Amino acid sequence: MKNPLLRLIFLSLQVRFVNMTNRLIYFFQKLPLLKRLISADIYKSQDLKTVFLILGVFFVVSKKFMFFLLYWLILLPIGLAVSHVHTFDDIFDAFNPEIEAIGTFGAADVFGNMLVAWFIISFLGAAINSTLIASEHWQNDEVMVNLLRVNPVQYGKSRIFADRASDLIIWLPTLLVAYFFVIDAGFLTVLWAAVATLVVYTAFRLFAEFTNLWLFRKFRKHLGSNGWIAFGYMSTFIILGFIAPFFLGTPDFNALFGIFSPIFVILAIGVIFVLVRYIKNYLLFFDVFNETIQRSRAAIDKYYQAGGSSGSLGADQKSAQDWAKKLDTTVFHEDKHSHKTGLSYLNAIFFERHRQFFRKKMLLRIALLVAPLILALLTEGFLRIFISESLQNFFVQDLTAAEVYNELADLFRATPFFFIIVYAFSMGRLVTGAVFTNCDIHMLHYPYYRQAQVILASFRVRMKMIFGLNLLLTSLLGVSVVGILWLALGVMNWQSAALFFTIITLMGLTLGFSDLFLYYIIQPYDSDGKGKSLAYNVINWVVYMLSFVLMQVQIELTYFALAWLAISVVYFGIGTAALVRVAPWRFRLR
Amino acid sequence: MKLKVDNLQKKFDKKVVLTGASYTFEQGKIYGLLGRNGAGKTTMFNCLTSNLQLDGGEVLIESGGETRKATFDDIGFVFTQPHLPEFMTGNEFLKFFTEINREKIAEPVDFAAAFASVELDEEARFKLIKDYSHGMQNKLQMLAFLVLRPPVILLDEPLTSFDVVAALQIKNLIKSIKSEHIIIFSTHILELAQDLCDEITILHGGKLSKLDIDRLQDADFGDQIMRILSEEVTEETPDSSHEPAKSEVSP
Question: Nearest-CA neighbor of A436 among A350, A352, A362, A337?
Fold first, then answer.
């Protein structure tokens, strides 16, 4: 391949697909069953990479087609709305080429309006979507420019021209279809209209490239440098694109055919030549790439810092880590826990130093749990004072006492629903995330820390802490729910309330135990404190499915209490036995 | 007392790191473990301390005429990058460490004296570890093992990132305790090895071999080491490490 631009395009595609291939292999290697079957030698396989290259090209092209299809589907409502579609049948009639007009619209109108919207968003608003500044492939660019050290000028040009060429190829069929409906003429005319549109489109897109490159040369910034400017610019043209067709009305493309006159197209070609020349002579591509790479990398870092990489577990870890960094630089002469020894001492100091951290997390949970009750109380007070009504009048006014008690019984039968709430609020995962990130990640380097007696001792101390925290939360949940029911219904079956209270408390204890048990048995974190294991993800998924099922379950409180008690006892028993046997060889750094 | 490593085998997937490494280390000596990057020095240390499981071979302690399997109690590992709980103060960590290992510590520990022995002052003692410099963390790490006094102390590149004064302090500390311990430290700084070590052990091609002690102070010591570590590893290479007392690596 002698042409340097083509060679770079091909190299860039190779890098992208090799990267994708390696990531896929790495992902499959992590799966429990497959990892034994996939050896590291597979990374050397050129045949596999060639297959993926071909599949990848197909995937990229398909993705672009699908994107364009989606784009048109998004524009479709505009076309339909502007064309006054009133009924479901109108939609089908709009696409029937034999029907020129139904009432005030037809297919031509729909596509015509879509084209107007497309023109405003993608032609006029193209400046925010230029190839290098809106680079979704910044990591690929980083490899090419910073690691492989390709000529950045050649590479920049190749990226721009490759994008424009792929647009031409992929938009053409879509436009042919659209113009078939809107232009009342033969195939050659439709083809000419599509080609002419694409020439004009290319001119606009190249002008967008030019705008950003010129801005960068002048100000070392472009339209994508500031997120707010980019967002504002993009939003403006999207909104204009959606609104304008309503004001402009449906264009008559046959009348407008003059726009696609050869003269206009020749002008567009001339503009293209001028812009291509500017781009060919542009020398600051390296700086543009670096700006995009640094900006994208900063955004990714910010995302990971917010715990975005591993969901809430990652967020808990990250916040625990940040908390540890903010611990006061002070001299701790007084040892409040000097009476404690060993693991009790270690964990006591840990929880002492993280007290504010856990307090903050608890306060949020407490606020969420108590807020509904407070709201109900305030509402009751307001109703009584200002309207001489009560909540009961809204909920059970027309019910007899027996019916109210039945209603109450039904509500208590839905107790399994609260599993998801207790699970969401459980402090177990937060505590394990914090203890791993700030304590165990260091201590697990020492063999004595992985001994069975040490693990059990530490487990007991941490279990007590989690139990205490969860007990407080489930108590507040119980009080809140019972309080709201009492206010709403005016009566309470205190026996059922006590049973409800007991069940959710037990749920809190079981889930707390489960979180800690899984932490010791699976140890979901890797040694740099990030990520979690597939097994842990699967278990979490199972728990969520279980929560969903339990949300639908209605069961007598007594039966549910007995069932949950039995499950808890068995789980505690098996879990403790497994802890002693399995944890010493599972609880280590991955 | 001796530490015998016999036919150690370790691999990660298809990458073989240790292929029958054998050696005998003796009390009262400081051994320098030299090897190229990726040779397996840290892996070997992790295997000795049971942080990693060996695929084969044994680690034995010979003491008082008896030979037994080494346990993690016998071996202390001082990491290149200290692993310490940063939310604790130095004093708290040492207190925790001594309590966890109280059965192995013969005498009660005077914490003030212990900290003074590694030149960590009173203020540092009660400061959070998160505010310790790298050198201070290393000293605290070493202090923990000085208190514990395991028979074998492994130091993984111990003087990386140390300033001149701290490096000298640590070197003197190592020399002061060598008579009661077997000390093995990995390094790729030849001058450090020459300065500190009584014996040089080379890990190359997954095997351990001894460098002739008389060559330690040779002017072309560096060249010798380079030649040895640049040799290609073949199947036919004689396994000289099974008789470490007699075999010597020819330059």
Answer: A350
Eight-class DSSP state of A125: G
Rounded Cα distance between A249 and A94, Å, is: 16
Closest CA to A9 of A209, A166, A213, A207: A166
Q: Measured between alpha carbons, how far is A440 from B87 in angstroms, rounded to an integer?
A: 12
Question: Which tokens belong to A350?
Answer: 């840990």
Does the beta-carbon distance from B87 to A439 stay under 8 Å?
A: yes
Within its chain, how far is the Cα of A402 from the centroid? 48
CB < 8 Å to A43, chain B: none
For residue A325, which residues of chain B lie inside 8 Å, CB to CB?
A: 130
Contacts of B192 (CB under 8 A, 6+ apart): B32, B159
Give the mean pLDDT of chain A. 82
Helix axes A401-413 and A494-522, enclosed angle (nearest 10): 10
| Cβ–Cβ < 8 Å for A451, B50 | no
State CA A536 to chain mean position distance.
19
Q: Which of A36-50, A326-340, B69-83, B129-143 has the lowest mean pLDDT?
A: A326-340
Share of chain A above pLDDT 90, in %: 22
C-alpha B208/C-alpha B47 separation (Å) is 14
- Residue to mutate among B128, B129, B133, B141, with most A CBs inside 10 A, is B128
**Which pLDDT belongs to residue A104?**
47
How would you classify the pairing of strands B30-34 and B152-156? unpaired
Token representation of residue B6: 């016999």
**CB B80, CB B141: distance < 8 Å:** no
Residue type, A504: I
Question: Are A150 and A11 spatial neighbours (Cβ–Cβ below 8 Å)?
Answer: yes
Amino acid A366: pLDDT: 95
**Among candidates A458, A584, A555, A568, which has minimal Cα distance to A513?**
A568
Residue among B25, B93, B85 nearest B59 (CA): B25
**Mutate which of A332, A336, A354, A450 to test chain B, going by most B C-beta atoms within 10 A?**
A332
Residue with tokens 């490239």: A209
How far is residue A300's CA from residue B239's CA, in Å, rounded to a whole number?
Answer: 51
A355 burial (CB, 10 Å; 0-12 / 13-18 / 19+) is exposed
In whole angstroms, give the CA distance from residue A95 to residue A250.
Answer: 16
Q: What separation in angstroms does the CA of A146 have from each of A13, A285, A441, A557?
A: 16, 12, 33, 65
Q: Alpha-carbon distance A39 to A60, whole Å? A: 28
User: Smallest Cα–Cα separation from A34: which of A47, A24, A21, A19?
Assistant: A24
Tell me the HSE value of A45 on the side-chain side, using a 13 A CA sphere: 16
Q: Which residue of A329, A341, A345 is in closest CB contact with B128?
A: A329
pLDDT at A288 over 70: yes
> Does B241 score more than 50 pLDDT?
no
The pLDDT value recorded for residue A29 is: 74
Please answer whether residues B194 and B15 qualify as being in contact, where contact means their C-beta atoms are separated by less than 8 angstroms. no
Chain A stretch 424-463, residues whose beta carbon is closer than 8 A to a beta carbon of chain B: 438-439, 441-443, 445-448, 454
**How far is residue A34's CA from residue A398's CA, in Å, rounded to a whole number?**
62
What are B200's strand-pairing partners?
B32, B211
Q: Which one-letter amino acid corresponds to residue B156?
A: D
pTM of the model: 0.67
And the tokens for A307? 């715990």
Look up residue A35 and give its DSSP letter. Answer: T
Average pLDDT over residues A162-174: 84
Q: Amino acid identity, residue A529?
A: G
Which one of A81-85, A311-315, A433-437, B219-223 scores highest in mean pLDDT? Answer: A433-437
Among A442, A453, A461, A585, the strongest candidate for a mutation testing the B interface, having the largest count of B CBs within 10 A, is: A442
Give the strand pairing for B2-12 and B56-63. antiparallel
